[in-house]
Model the fold of this input.
Amino acid sequence: MLAVIKTGGKQYIVAPGQKIKIEKLSNKEGLPAQAGEEVVFDEVLLVKDGENVRIGTPFLQGARVQAKVLKQGKGKKLIVFKFKPKKKEKRKQGHRQLFTEVEIISIESK
Done:
């Protein structure tokens, strides 16, 4: 069984048992989701079960994906370097994107 979910402005193809890194998740209080917490993705765009494929317009009603938070973390450091020739102007800055690693538990489709 496969599903396409939308979270953090991106779309992911997921299957049960798969581990994925997504944009940082927070719980209802606005705090970062803790390891072991369960999250539910309601914005399901597509569900494929064998030969049966259901496509939402834009989302499927009654479909949801359950996942468990494994950890919160930061990605690899990216260097942002801005340079303007003939102006003696340059700026170097680093960036590490925050992520949440989740494991897909189940895909439910009505």
Summary: The first strand starts at residue 2 and ends at 7. The radius of gyration is 18 Å.
